[in-house]
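Example S7 (structure tokens).
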């Protein structure tokens, strides 16, 4: 936790005290019908607003048993990862339990996972369900976590939240986003996380998840989580984490040009450094992803970037240094990456790459 972390020093009692008579006070993350089934319509009726989301437990939505026991890790997660389900933005809502079961079936029968991959699911109506078994119990305990299967390399250190819908071109419904906010705040509170530790799936993998629109809402999500944790906090102190840009077909500009130089530096054949993410670049990315055992998406996101953006020494020459120059020699590069008082170090490594790319 950083010294200037706005959530630092917030005690659970403090939050509950504040919340008691106010909006957040209602953070009530318990299964109102343990062992039973909750009727989503009735649940909606008793919600006085997004401030009191109730969690429909695995028992509540009649989850299948996991195919093998879930793994409980004796540590707290270090982050939250936000996803969208990439399913249709239905106008005819499925019952929460039906949706939760359909996703669990898909994760177990098609993906071959032991249980739901995520820890929590929020439907478009703003109703909340437990995902993987024991996620709720461990969240309430605040000391341990269940290993998920929602983001390779991050499954043992992150809480994965699925949001029903596809948020590439439309925003999540306000009720769903409000519940996401409260769930994130409660998760931060329970595990001592900062709002700046809320990420999108694309920050770690080469995926468009959680959709451009929901991803663009993450800074606002972090700020409102900070406010829930500590009303009156100066939200200008709520930082977004350093990440990587997502690049994909039809993108153009200096980031693309830099990525193309880095693909060439990595020895990927057939990539022309022209700043246009066309078919040849997609094929080059597939090649790079195949070599590194990454999912083959043809996009460059949080999966490929850390492997592509190798350390570059000033004056070393070659394609990698051309990548640095591509970012420095354009309006977007130094302006986006630099900022006041920052100079490009002699060796450009991850933090400098992220600043040059405008996401640091
Ligand atoms: Zn995802």
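Recovered sequence:
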């Amino acid at each position: 936790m950083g010294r200037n972390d706005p959530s630092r020093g917030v005690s659970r009692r403090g939050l509950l005290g504040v919340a008691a008579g106010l909006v957040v006070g209602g953070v009530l993350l318990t299964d109102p019908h343990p062992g039973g089934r909750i009727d989503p319509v009735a649940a909606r009726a008793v919600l006085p607003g997004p401030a009191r989301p109730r969690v429909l437990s695995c028992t509540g939505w009649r989850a299948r048993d996991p195919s093998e026991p879930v793994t409980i890790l004796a540590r707290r997660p270090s982050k939250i990862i936000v996803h969208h389900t990439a399913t249709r933005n239905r106008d005819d809502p499925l019952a929460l339990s039906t949706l939760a079961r359909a996703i669990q079936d898909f994760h177990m029968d098609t993906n071959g996972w032991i249980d739901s991959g995520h820890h929590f699911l929020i439907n478009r109506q703003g109703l909340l369900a437990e995902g993987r078994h024991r996620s709720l119990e461990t969240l309430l305990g605040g000391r341990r976590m269940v290993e998920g299967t929602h983001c390779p390399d991050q499954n043992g250190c992150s809480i994965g939240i699925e949001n029903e819908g596809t948020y590439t071109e439309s925003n999540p419904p306000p009720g769903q986003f409000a519940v996401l906010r409260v769930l994130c705040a409660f998760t931060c509170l329970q595990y001592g996380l900062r709002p700046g530790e809320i990420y999108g799936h694309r920050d770690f993998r080469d995926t468009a998840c959680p959709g451009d629109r929901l991803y663009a809402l993450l800074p606002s999500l972090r700020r409102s989580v900070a406010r829930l944790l500590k009303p009156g906090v100066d939200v200008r102190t709520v930082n977004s984490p350093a990440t990587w840009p997502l690049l994909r077909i039809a993108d153009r500009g200096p980031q693309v040009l830099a990525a193309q130089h880095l693909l060439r530096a990595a020895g990927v054949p057939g990539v022309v450094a022209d700043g246009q993410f066309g078919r040849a670049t997609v094929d080059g990315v597939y090649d790079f992803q195949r070599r590194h055992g990454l999912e083959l998406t043809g996009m460059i996101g949080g999966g490929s970037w850390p492997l592509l953006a190798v350390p570059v020494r000033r004056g070393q020459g070659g394609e990698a240094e051309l990548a640095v120059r591509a970012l420095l020699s354009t309006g977007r590069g130094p302006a986006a990456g630099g900022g006041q008082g920052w100079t490009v170090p002699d060796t450009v490594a991850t933090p400098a790459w992220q600043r040059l790319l405008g996401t640091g």
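Notes on this example. The longest helix spans residues 174-191.
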